[in-house]
Amino acid sequence: MNLKYGVEGFPAEFQWGVATAAYQIEGAAFEDGRGLSIWDDFSHTAGRILHGDTGDVACDHYHRMSADIDLLEMLGVTHYRFSIAWPRILPEGKVSPINSTGLDFYQRLVDKLLEKGITPTATLYHWDLPLALQTDGGWVNRDTAEHFAEYAALMVRVLGDRVGHWITHNEPWCSAVLGHLTGEHAPGIQDPEATLSAAHNILLSHGWAVRAMRAVRPSASVGITLNLNMIYGQNDAVETIKAVELQDAFANRWYLDPIFYGQYPSALETIFGHMPAVLPDDMSQIQVPLDFLGINYYFSTVVVGNSSATNPAWPVPVARPEGPLTAMGWPVMPQGLRDLLLRLSRDYPMVPLVITENGAAYPDVPSTGTIPDRDRIRYLEAHIDAVHDAVTQGANVQGYYIWSFLDNFEWALGYAKRFGLFYVDFDTLQRIPKESAFWYRDFLHHLPPF
Ligand code: FCB
After folding, report:
1. Which end of the chain is more exposed for a tag (fewer CB within 10 A), N or C?
2. pLDDT (tens digit, 9 = 90+) per residue, 48-84?
3. Closest by alpha carbon to 55, among 85, 83, 36, 27?
4. Ligand 1 centre and the CA of 237: distance in Å?
């Protein structure tokens, strides 16, 4: 093991976990009264997902939940982050009718986790919007935000006595940009205006949900998870510095600033041509104190200030990544995580930080009883070290969750990219621990390397 520090080098009560999301692992898409989501529709639309894959079966976690939690116990995680499929609870998206069989599933999941001494961290929205709400406009319609707040309150009423931490949204940037601008994700829209209003309504739904959840259970620990990254400039030229600011506004501050300061960055006007439409009370609703900020970190971005970029991107040109790349083509940049945590501590000091996702895809291949994934182990070690550096330098980081527990349905890329600590054979649905699973287990048990 190359880690400089073991778990004892981190604050007591640190959350050590793994993360998953409902549509990526559950399967049972058409069973037990679950309603359809935008991802059922999207994945069944020809040409949207690589190889025509769908989440119909995924890892079949819905039927294998109990055995999967035994695997979590083997790992020794203190926390498990999963998401609740909104349409499994509310098939129409609205508070009535309630699908009690769907609720039962999450009751059993939470109870089993607690029985194993694992604290549940539940995400309320990891992209699977009930299809019925999309028919009425989805996130572009403000009513969806009200339905979300009602769903959030319901979940806290039912599970709030047992769930340790709640996350309202996972990566609103992706819901807005990939779902409504590039169209790579459900609902597959390509419209800048829809993007701006979807983002705003998602933020509003977050604010309303946090208030509704606290009204039910004032002690609930509630946060939101954003995908954030450091934006570096390739040089010190004035135009590069401007490009860095623009990209930072687009990638990070678009969500951070309304949540923590009640205002959008003015750079959105440069990017979209005008600022988002905001009703008088909206910003104060969005800016609600949080118990933690969840951060999903995979890589950082280097931007260049002029059009000589070899790899142009919107809204500014970005440099072609250097050094080793993961199977996603993402650069390995652990220093970006350290810098990000320190930057957040400086610019948004009001909130504790939790890394709710970090991990890497590699082309794992089973080989005589084992699945060697040294690249993933190295990636994770380097990032845990970066977290430790940030903690040592004063960042208030309270947890770290690996993405992911199991190989799963990687959205538009289907089953082609493997992020799991456990390999899933998608023909037999057998789970096989990769070397990284043993590595994490040993780390969490303060053991020397396997
Ligand atoms: C994040 C998502 C997660 C997974 C990882 C690789 O953006 O939150 O569901 O797909 O990327």
Report:
1. C
2. 999 999 999 999 999 999 999 999 999 999 999 999 9
3. 27
4. 34
Active-site pick, 92, 146, 150, 171: 171
Specify whether the CB–CB gap between 179 and 238 falls below 8 A.
no
Gap between the Cα atoms of 377 and 61, Å rounded? 25
The dihedrals phi and psi of 175, each to the nearest 5 degrees, come to: -55, -45
Q: Which of 26, 245, 357, 381 is catalytic?
A: 357
pLDDT score at 6? 82
In the predicted model, what is the mean pLDDT of the chain? Answer: 96
**Beta carbon of 411 within 6 Å of any ligand 1 atom:** yes
Report H helices in 76-191.
Answer: 86-89, 100-115, 131-135, 143-159, 172-173, 179-180
| Catalytic residue flag (residue 357) | yes
β-bridge pairing 422-424 and 431-433: antiparallel
> Is 269 tagged catalytic?
no
pTM over 0.85: yes
**E-assigned strand segments in 297-352:** 301-303
* DSSP letter string, 173-239: HIIIIIHHTS-SSTT----HHHHHHHHHHHHHHHHHHHHHHHHH-TT--EEEEEE---EEESS--HH
Q: Note the helical H segments in 300-450.
A: 334-347, 374-392, 435-444
Strands (E), 314-368: 353-357
List, for residues 16-35, the tens digit of each pLDDT value. Answer: 999 999 999 999 999 999 99
- CATH 3.30.160.20: does it fit domain 7-444? no
102 vs 267: CA distance, rounded Å: 43
Mutate to test the pocket of ligand 1, among 403, 404, 409 (most ligand atoms within 8 A of CB): 403
Residue 311, Cβ neighbours under 10 Å: how many?
A: 11
Q: How far is the CA of 115 from the centre of ligand 1 (A)?
A: 28
Predicted confidence (pLDDT) per residue in 327-368, tens digit? 999 999 999 999 999 999 999 999 999 999 999 999 999 888
> The tokens 């994945």 sit on which residue?
43
> Which atom of ligand 1 is least distant from the CA of 174?
7
- What is the 286 CA–ligand 1 centroid distance (Å)? 24
